[in-house]
Write a structure and sequence with these properties.
This protein has 736 residues and is an alpha/beta fold. It is built from 26 helices and 21 strands. The longest helix has 50 residues. The N terminus is likely disordered.
């Protein structure tokens, strides 16, 4: 910036010198002439000043002069011309300055003006010699001195200017060479020059940082020596193309071996400069991009994998399914998608916290990996939902793998101090052709999974076309369910619990029904699962508890003292902090004796957060209520938890009752359960008794109570009151 200012300053000084010459000539002509000062002397002074201005102007800085400065030059020559005119010089002489001024305007450059100015100035002094025949001393001096000076100065200035420009160019080139040499020597990127045979001719010092080799130690070697064997063909092809194509450039990434034996990824740019006389080789730039590649791979992995389980996410899983379907168009076969949903997973989150839930999800992911084939793809689709893609399978093999997965979940999972058993429902959708889309296949598997949950949790179900209609129905039911409680659409049915010895009705189990305005009576199997999912089970359960206790107390008042009441509790209710208060309110408002209330919980609930479950059951026992285990024998029946929890009654699952007539293993298990209950002084209730043979054998095996269609179906409160008055023992007496 300072150099530019000095150059402009010198240019302006030269222009000022021109103006000074013009003003001096003009003013000396108007003022009385100084002694001995003749017009020729005035012109000589003005010419000398003009020549000096030309000299200064010809120097390299003139190209930086501004347009305002350039405009002063023709003004100066006009003033010189006017000064000579008033001094009485011949018209030839001062006319020359007018011509020079116009020439400057036309050429716009000092050298063009000097080429015109010099011969014209000489003619101005030579012409009078021929016109007058006399030559004054001033004319001779001008001819012999001023003329050669003008010619010499003009050419000398041009020569000096050219040499200065050449010196400046050489200086700049030397500076540029040093600059670029410094850049190459200190660059973090490795720069190599290869000859036409592909051998290293030059290598920058960055080779020590990039590859760990000593600078210059690989001269004469091929860069392919350090390239990974898998990448060598790619690099050979690229280098061969560049060497054979003048001016060609190729960019590629590949792996090279560091001096320490590790493999680094480099980004290389190869440029053919064999035709460039300053290079005469192939220039190769290496940049180490190992960290960048690792970061890109990590970001790509995160984009398509679940951060918790490291399984594929929904996007990657859908993409894999689409590719598998596309392959079906080229090769016959079949694929299957398993949609896996963990049962009661929210219970784990609510009771143990989300950290425990995350540990459980990770454990599920590991067990999926064990149960699957190496060619299968597992994914976490979101929340507690998982997907498995099976290729080259049919429906039978897909169901076998689903069964193997469920079997792998049976082993309890240690989460902190708790032992959790994973229960899951699996939906299976199979495709044998490419006409099915990935979205449809996933949707069908999802629908089949919900069908599996409705039939029985912990199982699998193959998709059938009719299930889609059921799914639509389920969606509508879910929407209606949210308004059912406010509209008073729920009612209760009561099924007797009968003493096997006498046939006496000892109690009733309250069963909820939904009186849908359009569909009629909706059974619990259709809506209880939905109510648990959307959180409505807690207010529905609160209503059931209060209504059942009120009705039970009504029967007490009507002459049925000691009639017990059983009410089911869901897992969500057991985890609800307000459960104890709800039970206490129901008992207080109804006036029912707490000892007549039995709260039923499923066996699987006991496996979740035993500390919390124990505390809750202890609080309920503190109110005076009894505790029963429902569906006993279907889960992991354990003597340890029967001793640990405050349990009063075991309700044996109906699958064991149905097997009594066949005998075999189930009968042996039932016998063991009854014996165990007697040892622990627990009451037993056999569920699902449907005929006299089952009832008779149960009594012979030492069963206490039973319920089922053999005795009575679930009845409305009024119908049950009639049955209580009539009695079962007389109408359905058991054989002796």
């Amino acid at each position: 910036m300072e150099q530019g200012l000095s150059q402009r300053l010198v240019g302006r000084m030269a222009a000022a010198l021109y103006v000074f010459a013009g003003v001096g000539t003009f003013s000396s002509a108007l003022l009385p002439a100084a002694p001995g000062m003749q017009p020729a002397g005035i012109m000589a002074v003005s010419v000398a000043a003009a020549l000096l201005g030309l000299l200064v102007w010809h120097l390299p800085w003139e190209r930086w002069s501004s347009r305002a400065t350039l405009s002063l030059v023709p003004v100066a020559f006009f003033l010189i011309a006017l000064g000579n005119h008033f001094a009485g010089a011949e018209p030839f002489r001062y006319g020359i300055y007018f011509i020079v001024a116009f020439t400057w305007i036309g050429f716009g450059h000092p050298r063009g003006t000097s080429l015109v100015f010099t011969p014209l100035l000489l003619l101005a002094y030579v012409v009078p010699l021929f016109t007058t025949g006399t030559v004054s001393p001033n004319a001779i001096a001008s001819l012999l001195i001023v003329g050669p000076i003008c010619i010499g100065v003009g050419e000398s200035v041009s020569w000096v200017s050219g040499r200065l420009r050449a010196a400046e160019f050489n200086l700049q080139r030397m500076h540029s060479e040093r600059y670029f040499r410094s850049l190459i020597q200190n660059s973090s990127d490795l720069v190599m020059i290869l000859d036409d045979a592909g051998r290293i001719r030059f290598e920058s010092p960055a080779v020590e940082r990039v590859l760990g080799h000593r600078s210059g130690g690989r001269i004469g070697h091929s860069p392919l020596d350090d390239v990974h064997p898998d990448d060598t063909p790619l690099v050979q092809d690229a280098l061969g193309f560049v060497v054979g194509s003048p001016g060609a450039e190729q960019r590629l990434d590949f792996r090279v071996q560091h001096a320490d034996g590790s493999w680094h990824v480099v980004e290389a740019i190869c440029t053919n400069l064999l035709a460039d006389e300053h290079v005469s080789g192939v220039v190769v730039n290496y940049r180490d991009v190992t960290e960048r590649k690792l970061l890109e791979e990590q970001l790509q992995h995160q984009a398509f994998h679940d951060g918790l389980t490291d399984l594929a996410n929904r996007a990657l899983f859908t993409d894999r399914v689409e590719h598998a379907l596309a392959r079906l168009s080229r090769a016959p076969g079949g694929i299957a998608v398993l949609f896996i949903d963990l049962d009661d997973f929210k219970t784990v989150n609510d009771s143990l916290g989300h950290g425990a839930g995350d540990e459980l999800l990770v454990a599920v992911a590991r067990r999926l990996g064990v149960a699957m084939r190496p060619s299968d793809t597992a994914a976490r689709l979101g929340g507690d939902e998982f997907g498995v893609l099976l290729e080259d399978v049919g429906a039978d093999e897909a169901q076998q793998i689903a069964g193997r997965i469920l079997e792998g979940f049976r082993e309890p999972v240690a989460i902190g101090r708790s032992q959790l058993v994973v229960h899951a429902s699996i939906g299976i959708a199979v495709a044998t052709g490419p006409r099915t889309t990935a979205v449809e296949l996933l949707r069908n598997a999802d629908i089949a999974m919900y069908s599996a949950k409705q039939r029985r949790k912990g199982g699998y179900q193959l998709f059938e076309p009719g299930m889609q209609r059921a799914a639509v129905r389920r969606l509508q039911i879910n929407a209606d369910l949210e308004r059912a409680l406010d509209r008073g659409e729920f009612s209760l049915r009561y099924q007797p619990l009968v003493t096997l010895d006498s046939g006496e009705i000892r109690g009733v189990e309250a069963l909820v029904r939904w009186e849908h305005p359009r569909r009629g009576v909706v059974l619990p199997a259709e809506f209880i699962g939905l109510a648990e999912e959307n959180g409505l089970i807690v207010p529905i359960g609160r209503w059931v508890l209060g209504e059942a206790c009120r009705q039970a107390q009504t029967w007490q008042n009507e002459g049925e003292p000691g009639l017990g009441l059983n009410v089911n509790l869901s897992a969500k209710q057991l985890l609800d902090p307000g459960l104890t208060a709800d039970v206490a309110d129901a008992l207080a408002q109804s006036g029912l004796d707490p000892s007549l209330l039995t709260l039923e919980i499923t066996e699987s609930i006991l496996m979740h957060d035993t500390a919390h479950t124990t505390a809750t059951l202890e609080r309920l026992k503190g109110l005076g209520a009894r505790i029963a285990i429902d569906d006993f024998g279907t889960g992991y029946s354990s003597l340890s938890y029967l001793r640990r929890f405050p349990i009063d009654c075991l309700k044996v699952d109906q699958s064991f009752i149905a097997a009594i007539e066949r005998g075999g293993e189930e009968t042996a298990i039932l016998t063991s359960i009854l014996a165990l209950s007697r040892t622990l002084k627990l009451e037993t209730v056999a569920e699902g008794v449907e005929n006299v043979i089952q009832a008779t054998r149960l009594r012979a095996m030492g069963g206490d109570l039973a319920q089922g269609y053999y005795f009575a179906r679930p009845l409305a409160a009024g119908d049950l009151a009639v049955l209580l008055q009539q009695g079962i023992e007389g109408r359905l007496a058991l054989p002796a």
